[in-house]
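Supplementary Methods S3. Complex input for the zinc ion-bound model.
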Amino acid sequence: MNPVRTCVGCRQRDLKKNLVRAIAENGVVRVDLAARLPGRGVWFHQDCSQLVLDRNGFRKALGEASTAEFEAWHRQAREDAGNKMSSSK
Ligand SMILES: [Zn+2]
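Predicted complex, serialized as structure tokens:
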């Protein structure tokens, strides 16, 4: 079984294992890396997180919800990637 989900950023379908899950809980979008949180979730590629924000992908799928926590996670993930790149110089 290879479950497939649609990315709310690029709208491409991909295997669940290549996507990150997010849910809205109490009006806040939360990244659910372990895909264990209950509730209605959406899926996206980690690389598409900026696209998700640009396209309001969460709002369409989850309704009004704050993306502040998601944006913080997104920034952190980008910083981590940047640090890896600069340390390999
Ligand atoms: Zn995508």
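The chain has a mean pLDDT of 91. The CA atoms of residues 29 and 53 lie 12 Å apart.
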